[in-house]
TrEMBL record:
<feature type="domain" description="ABC3 transporter permease C-terminal">
    <location>
        <begin position="283"/>
        <end position="402"/>
    </location>
</feature>
<feature type="transmembrane region" description="Helical">
    <location>
        <begin position="368"/>
        <end position="392"/>
    </location>
</feature>
<feature type="domain" description="MacB-like periplasmic core">
    <location>
        <begin position="503"/>
        <end position="700"/>
    </location>
</feature>
<keyword id="KW-0472">Membrane</keyword>
<protein>
    <submittedName>
        <fullName>Putative ABC transporter permease protein</fullName>
    </submittedName>
</protein>
<feature type="domain" description="MacB-like periplasmic core">
    <location>
        <begin position="22"/>
        <end position="239"/>
    </location>
</feature>
<dbReference type="InterPro" id="IPR050250">
    <property type="entry name" value="Macrolide_Exporter_MacB"/>
</dbReference>
<feature type="transmembrane region" description="Helical">
    <location>
        <begin position="507"/>
        <end position="527"/>
    </location>
</feature>
<feature type="transmembrane region" description="Helical">
    <location>
        <begin position="820"/>
        <end position="840"/>
    </location>
</feature>
<dbReference type="GO" id="GO:0005886">
    <property type="term" value="C:plasma membrane"/>
</dbReference>
<dbReference type="Pfam" id="PF12704">
    <property type="entry name" value="MacB_PCD"/>
</dbReference>
<feature type="transmembrane region" description="Helical">
    <location>
        <begin position="328"/>
        <end position="356"/>
    </location>
</feature>
<feature type="transmembrane region" description="Helical">
    <location>
        <begin position="276"/>
        <end position="300"/>
    </location>
</feature>
<dbReference type="GO" id="GO:0022857">
    <property type="term" value="F:transmembrane transporter activity"/>
</dbReference>
<feature type="transmembrane region" description="Helical">
    <location>
        <begin position="423"/>
        <end position="441"/>
    </location>
</feature>
<dbReference type="InterPro" id="IPR025857">
    <property type="entry name" value="MacB_PCD"/>
</dbReference>
<keyword id="KW-0812">Transmembrane</keyword>
Length: 856
């Protein structure tokens, strides 16, 4: 039979079954829409940031900054050296910048929250005098001309509810300075001020004083003299400042870049973040598409089964097997194109909504960027997924002999054809269990690889074995749940196990999403339990003072130490250093005895650090081959080498980190006060002092520091576990896509099943089954299948999640927790999902007219 004729048959078949077409297309739409949304959203944000960064360092030919991000900056001696050799090097203009982390108080006196965006204090330079104005301009008020006057970017001023003339407080995030009172004298328009970014600019002399200008500058911006190119100036400066590195004898101390390189580096940084975001969104879109493949496969299997007689008739009048196969695939192609096109439109809409939200959070938007990549990715993914899903049903349709098909009622391969796939599934499951055992026996990256391989094998095994499992498991579920519903419940159970392939494919769409939910839930619950246990075991302090996500000035510890009812206070100051060529952080305890505020877990040596002692965790000591008396050399960000001696070993403790050094050694590692910060202060109250009284005194003492928070042990735990809860909630929300598609799959399967069983339903109605009874039958059938899918998801999720947490013990996970509340909610929720998914098919079935259905 000619291809055009078969194409016409396929298109007419689609047109004749519009509801079936809509449901199948919608399964494709949901997955492809997330693909399109991920591509469009990240491309739009990338374009917006590119436009902003095009203005960064626009007037700068060369910039010199510290090679290490955590360094206090470039020594002032380098500035003097460059000024002395200005003519020889070919420098025209030279400008230094002073900056550091700060927090500004809002109108109500609380610290302005940035949502993780930088909050920077710096020196004000008039735009017409600045080498790099970055598009900045003064739009209200005037420039700061005296100490304690500041200008502020407009977006930050709006969030803080500050205007020109407002008096507020600025707290420094490093060094030893106490908060200072300031007056806002002007507002700045800054194109680069996005995503909650805060920039507080001081009068130049005060900025120099506050941010270590007598020792270091943040960066040096220069323009090249006439006749000297930016690359020539860069190479000359690099050769002078990084002579040893250029000669291959050491590491570069300074980063010497052209203005173009500065812009590209900043674009690359945001590009890296957006790439990760894009992959995360695409990963969840892929999960949705995988779930969608089961729905589409199930749908086309049912369609082929329902059209057996029609297809057989086509074979009888001359259609070849390839004609039949291509006919089914053509229907799939149309579904894929429609799903991809609609998914693209929906994806653009989702991206637009995401941009509305992110714009409200301060992120820039330059208009939707719907490129060729978004169009091709959505349509291509939609078409490929649909064609692959329909391939096996299409081949099955072509293999049915014409005469046999004419004798068949709508039928699919029965249980007898499940033996081979079940055996293969069992073998894969055994192999997966073997890999899981190997993962449990090892740790670190090898364990993760083994468990990852096991996950693939076990999930494939479940796909293959699920039809064989569905009959006994769904039957068992039905026997329990049918009791209150008598005959209706029994009939629903019979229907649910009638076609094991269909039930398994429908249920597995729900299973795959719940596997991920349970795995994530197991990791999250274990992590939270571990945090609670660590804090309970190690914290002896009554209160913890921390800055949350922001660093604190060392003056916080000094203020807390002055609280009358505080018996012992210990501040932990931190700085960034290098050990054996690798960047790391080092801390020092300042104040009283550590053992009074925390359990150190000392296993050897003494607690007292002395001037150049070091306490180190057992694991780190073993990794470096250290014992008591071993020597190590830390290198400061300015290149100063500071030797320390191991004086004690403690049990691995995330609260203490890898090592602690003595105060004098730490002082030598932080020659600039701007290089050190306080990250936590532990406080033990005097005997007999109530916690409420001590808290009140502490809150009053740290109130000027804005970011400092006073927390008891439970609040301190919650500050960590709330972060985990937020991450898990985000992941669950993204997994919601897969669950929505799974619900659609149940709706689709039940709706097609109602069409397939129309005569049967008519007969039931004719012999006395009422409409409510028929609806309950469909509801229960859906519930049985949904609970079966949920059980599979929970069992496989635990089988993968528990070994995964065990493998993470290499990174400190030493507690395994089963998320029983989540499992209970999942199983109960699956029953609700079953009812919701069955609402429309049940109503449709109940409306069936008995006589019309019987005579069809």
């Amino acid at each position: 039979m000619r291809t055009p004729v078969m194409a016409k048959v396929s298109l007419r078949s689609l047109a004749a079954h519009k509801i079936r077409l809509i449901l199948t297309v919608f399964s494709v739409v949901l997955g492809t829409s997330f693909v399109a949304a991920a591509v469009v959203f990240t491309a739009t944000v990338q374009s917006s940031f590119d436009n902003i960064f095009d203005n960064v360092a626009r007037g700068v030919d060369v910039q010199v900054s510290a090679a290490q991000a955590q360094s206090p900056g470039v020594p002032v001696e380098v500035v003097d050296q460059l000024r002395e050799q200005r003519g020889q090097l070919g420098i025209d203009k030279l400008q230094v910048d002073f900056s550091g982390p700060v927090t500004i108080a809002t109108a109500d006196g609380s610290g302005l929250q940035t949502g993780g965006a930088p909050s920077i204090g710096s020196s004000y330079i008039p735009p017409d005098q600045a080498v790099d104005a970055a598009g900045m301009k003064l739009v209200a008020g005037r420039a700061p001309t005296a100490p304690f006057e500041v200008v502020l970017n407009q977006s930050a001023a709006q969030k803080a509810q500050l205007t020109v003339g407002s008096k507020t407080v600025v707290a420094l995030g490093t060094g030893t300075s106490r908060p200072i009172g300031v007056t806002v004298v002007g507002l700045l328009d800054m194109p680069a001020a996005t995503g909650g970014f805060v920039n507080v600019q001081f009068e130049r002399a005060q900025a120099e004083q506050l941010f270590g200008g007598d020792e270091f500058v943040s960066a040096i911006d220069m323009t090249a003299a006439p006749g000297v190119s930016d690359t020539q100036l860069r190479d000359r400066l690099d050769a002078m400042l990084n002579a040893e590195a250029v000669a291959g004898k050491g590491e570069a101390l300074y980063q010497v870049r052209t203005g173009e390189q500065v812009r590209e580096d900043q674009k690359d940084q945001i590009g890296t973040v957006l790439t990760v975001l894009r992959y995360v969104l695409l990963a969840f879109a892929a999960i949705g598409l995988i779930v969608g493949t089961f729905i589409i496969y199930n749908t086309f299997s049912m369609i082929v089964a329902q059209r057996n007689r029609e297809l057989a008739l086509l074979r009888a009048i001359g259609a070849s097997r390839p004609n039949i196969s291509r006919s089914v695939l053509l229907e799939a192609l149309v579904v894929g194109i429609l799903g991809g096109a609609i998914g693209l439109g929906l994806g653009v809409g989702i991206a637009a909504l995401m941009l509305v939200y992110t714009s409200g959070q301060g992120l820039p938007s330059a208009g939707l960027q719907v490129g060729v990549g978004a169009v091709l990715s959505a349509v291509f993914v939609g078409v490929i997924v649909t064609l692959l899903s329909a391939w096996f049903p299409a081949q099955r349709a072509a293999r049915v002999p014409p005469v046999e098909a004419m004798r068949m009622s709508s039928a699919e391969p029965g249980a007898g054809s499940l033996r081979t796939r079940t055996i293969i599934g069992g073998l894969l499951a055994l192999a997966g269990i073997g890999l899981l055992a190997g993962g449990v026996a090892t740790q670190g990256v090898p364990a993760l690889l083994l468990i990852g391989g096991a996950a693939v094998l076990i999930i494939v095994a479940v796909v293959l074995a699920a039809p064989a499992l569905s009959q006994p498991v769904v039957g068992g579920i039905g026997r329990v749940l049918q009791i209150p519903f008598a005959t209706v419940g029994k009939l629903a159970r019979t229907n649910a196990i009638r076609n094991p392939r269909r039930s398994a494919a429908t249920a597995f769409a729900l299973t795959i999403g719940l596997i991920l939910v349970v795995v994530i839930g197991t990791i999250g619950a274990s992590f939270k339990t571990m945090i609670d246990a660590e804090i309970d075991q190690n914290l002896r302090a009554d209160f913890v003072v921390s800055g949350g996500q922001a660093p604190m000035s060392s003056a916080v510890g000094e203020a807390v130490a002055q609280v009358p009812d505080a018996q012992t206070t210990v501040s932990f100051d931190m700085a960034f250093v290098t050990l054996d060529g690798e960047r790391t952080a080092v801390s020092t305890p300042v104040g009283g005895a550590m053992s009074e505020v925390m359990n150190i877990g000392l296993v050897d040596g003494v607690e007292q650090l002395g001037p150049d002692g070091m306490l180190v965790s057992e694991k780190i000591a073993a990794d470096h081959g250290w014992t008591l008396g071993s020597r190590a050399v830390f290198v400061s960000t300015t290149g100063v080498e500071v030797p320390v001696t191991v004086t004690g070993l403690f049990v691995d403790n995330p609260a203490l980190g890898d090592w602690l050094v003595g105060n004098q050694a730490f002082d030598r590692l932080t020659p600039s006060q701007a290089a050190r910060m306080t990250f936590v202060v532990l406080v033990k109250g005097k005997p007999g002092v109530s916690e409420s009284a001590l808290r009140e005194q502490l809150e009053e003492a740290v109130k000027p520091f804005l970011t400092a928070q006073v927390q008891d042990s439970q609040q301190f735990k919650n500050s960590f576990t709330s972060i985990i809860d937020s991450i898990m909630a985000t992941l669950y929300a993204l997994l919601g896509l897969a669950l929505v598609i799974a619900i659609l799959g149940i709706i689709n399967t039940l709706a097609l099943s109602v069409v397939e069983r129309r005569q049967e339903i008519g007969m039931l109605r004719a012999i006395g089954m009422s409409r409510p009874q028929l609806r309950r039958t469909i509801y229960l059938e859906s519930v049985y299948i949904a609970i079966f899918g949920a059980l599979l998801g929970v069992i496989v999720g635990l089988a993968l999640g528990l070994p995964l947490v065990h493998a993470l013990r290499h990174w400190g996970f030493d507690v395994i927790t089963v998320p029983w509340p989540l499992i209970g909610i999942t199983l109960a929720g699956s029953a609700v999902v079953g009812v919701v998914a069955a609402l429309w098919p049940a109503v449709s079935a109940a409306r069936t007219k008995p006589l019309e259905a019987i005579t069809e």
